[in-house]
Write a structure and sequence with these properties.
mainly alpha
């Protein structure tokens, strides 16, 4: 599978799949002006994509909340640290 080339968006071909890709790109690297324009215009006009993004944000928040609640005792932390160090060698 060849690597994905940078998208060249056309406003009349822009769909929900493209908006989802741009949402992920926005989270990682940010969008240029043309991509922002297409993304926000699509979000303003598509209630399904707004719902999708809302669900993604809810999942992200729940995962972060759950991860902050995890408490490990000192022995488990030491064991994990030793395993990481051994695998890095």
């Amino acid at each position: 599978m060849k690597p994905r080339e940078e998208y060249k968006y056309k406003w009349y071909l822009f769909g929900c799949k493209d908006a989802g890709y741009l949402h992920e790109k926005k989270q990682d690297k940010g969008l240029n002006f043309g991509e922002k324009l297409l993304y926000y215009f699509h979000m303003a006009s598509c209630h399904l994509c707004r719902k999708y993004v809302k669900h993604l944000e809810l999942i992200k928040k729940n995962i972060l909340d759950y991860a902050l609640d995890i408490k490990l005792d000192f022995n488990k932390k030491e064991k994990i640290q030793k395993t990481i160090q051994n695998n890095l060698k």
